[in-house]
Design a protein that fits this description.
Elements: H1 5-29, E1 38-42, E2 45-48, H2 49-65, E3 70-73, E4 85-93, H3 95-100, E5 106-113, E6 116-124, E7 129-134, E8 139-141, E9 144-145, E10 158-161, H4 171-182, E11 187-190, H5 194-202, E12 208-211, H6 216-228, E13 232-234, H7 242-245, E14 248-251, H8 253-266
Parallel strand pairs: 3-4, 10-11, 10-12
Antiparallel strand pairs: 1-2, 4-5, 5-6, 6-7, 7-8, 8-9, 12-14, 13-14
Helix pairs in contact: 1-2, 4-8, 5-6
Bound molecules: D-MYO-inositol-1-phosphate and calcium ion (2 copies).
The site of D-MYO-inositol-1-phosphate has 12 residues, from β4 and α3.
């Protein structure tokens, strides 16, 4: 399907308006949640009324403009009627931070067209920062072009990661990787919002980001940001299946290569992921 840049900009505009409306609700309730607004979906996996309301707002925007598009959103059952258009939405990425009052969370919205990521947006409502990407047309922060780190050296880089807190059985492998990496880099960060980690990597703040077992809504928009900011996104076997496996390594070409080497040498099962 041939899609013009103007059409992609229209999709991005709708995502932007939706994210800003959801962000207003998130700011309003931040650090003011009462316990009845928090529910445990599964062990160690929480959702708040704010996540749900945000998702409703975003879905309404999309449905209003593109009623035939399919939507995959974290807090709803999949609405995957046949459509070449699939919106992938995390209405509040960083829910644990949000619940505890840590000021690091974001809204992540991506659009796949015929299975290809074409539009991505990560919005940080507290800082009013919007990170956007359009396939083939670059990545931007608040309208200004961004680029992944130009450092050639992992030793002087900050590397971002997420702990496998919902998959405690992989913690031993994770710790092995962490130990080796810790000796090779300037320092490591665990921010608690994968989409923001990816946005900061696209901006060159972090040299790279890696995490196990994420969901498509955590990473779809951020992956496009990285690619359009001149970087690389792969799974742990250096392939393109990160949306399926949830295992992601993303960053500048040089740092991605070094990081992947460390992950693979410490995870003998990497070739299966
Ligand atoms: C989580 C965040 C976190 C990552 C988790 C994700 P949620 O998303 O991105 O950084 O470590 O694995 O599930 O649940 O807050 O939307
Ligand atoms: Ca998430
Ligand atoms: Ca979420």
């Amino acid at each position: 399907m041939k899609t013009t840049q103007q059409t992609l900009k229209t999709y991005l505009e709708v995502a932007n308006n939706a994210a800003r409306e959801a962000g207003t609700i998130q700011k309003k309730h931040f650090r003011k949640l009462n316990p009845s607004m928090i529910n445990e979906k599964a062990a160690n996996d929480f959702v708040t009324d704010v996540d749900k309301k945000s998702e409703e707002i975003i879905k309404d925007h999309i449905a209003k403009h593109f009623s035939d598009h399919a939507i995959l959103a974290e807090e709803s059952s999949a609405n995957t009627h046949a459509s070449p258009f699939l919106w992938i939405i995390d209405p509040l990425d960083g829910t644990a931070n949000y619940i505890h009052g840590v000021p690091a969370f974001a809204i992540s919205i991506a659009l796949e067209i015929e299975g290809e990521l074409c539009v991505g947006l990560v919005y940080d409502p507290l800082r009013d920062d919007v990170f956007t990407a359009i396939k083939g047309h670059g990545a931007r922060k608040n309208g200004n072009p961004i680029h992944v780190s130009r450092s050639q050296n992992i030793k002087t880089s900050l590397i971002a990661t997420g702990f496998p807190f919902r998959k405690k059985h992989i913690v031993d492998t994770y710790v092995k990787i962490f130990r080796e990496l810790f000796n090779h880099v300037s320092d490591l960060r665990r921010g608690g919002s994968a989409s923001l980690d990816l946005a900061y990597t696209a901006e060159g703040i972090f040299g790279a980001f890696f995490e196990y077992a994420l969901s498509p809504w955590d990473i779809a928009a951020g992956a496009l940001l990285i690619q359009e900011a001149g970087g690389i996104t792969t799974d742990f076997s250096d392939k393109n299946n990160y949306l399926k496996t949830g295992n992601i390594v993303a960053g500048s070409k040089t740092i991605h290569t070094e990081l992947l080497k460390i992950i693979q040498s410490n995870d003998p099962d990497y070739f299966r992921k």
